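Students often ask why we bother encoding 3D structure as a string. The short answer is that it lets us treat folding as translation between two languages. Here is a chain of 298 residues written in the first language.
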Amino acid sequence: MNTRQAYWRDLADFSLYLRDKASKEIVDASNDEIKSYLKDLGDKMHVKGQNTAQIATRTVARRLSALRQFYRYLVSENIRKDDPTSAIESPKQGRTLPKTLSESEVSNLIKAAAIGGGADSLRLVCLLEMLYATGLRVSELVGLPLSSINDDRQFLMVEGKGGRERMVPLSEPAQKSLEKYLDVRQQFVASDDKGTQGQWLFPSRTSESGHLTRQRFAQLLKDLADTAGIDADRVSPHILRHAFATHLLNNGADLRAVQKMLGHADIATTQIYTHIVGEKAKKTVEEKHPLGQKVVGA
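And here it is in the second language, the structure alphabet:
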């Protein structure tokens, strides 16, 4: 319903533009008139400062998509013989870089989670250390069966998207936090549990699934961010997954290795993190390298 209303607004906007500029009905628009409309739309958004360049590009692309569907319908119904949008290319949209955290911010989160030292604290530290060590998707992490841990607890067997299994190594800090958590894990299992909770690495007495939910873990992270002095909007399980990948590449990890650990089927998905690393390197050169400084009066 929302999509339909958005398309209707887009068509209505172009119809008003066409009547004002050419005294024509939308059914009779030409290729040049559509291109002129899209150009004017982009220019106005920039001049008025309504949006960033990226949002303006997305808006123009959406308007063009609405017009394409409209004119294809007219052609299919023999109302028009030609589609005036067929030769118009969509504007190229830059891919949004994933949000991430610095290494020190992740460290502060883990330190904040350790405050108190009780069972809840040990579980939260374990969740953080394991997520940061493996880059698991949040659904993979909270849904880990107890059997996913191998005997020496140096690796996890993870079933990801499409049922694909992968083996992910655990860092030494993650192994230590796991050992401490396992000593108190039984406290999260109800005494009358019939197996629904006991099979999970992170059991829960209150969830229907028997294990900690994604929503609950996300909320725990938001609360933890406040304690660590970090904007809660910048902290989520998925952002920690981004931090895992970004920090590995920052420290020289192989892209293929990161792809396997993240469970990406296509390396193109993993390559987005190289842009983050590249931007960081570029900024460092501009700020720190003597040749990167602007010369006064140049």
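Translate back mentally: Confidence is low (pLDDT under 50) at residues 280-298. Keep this in mind for the problem set.
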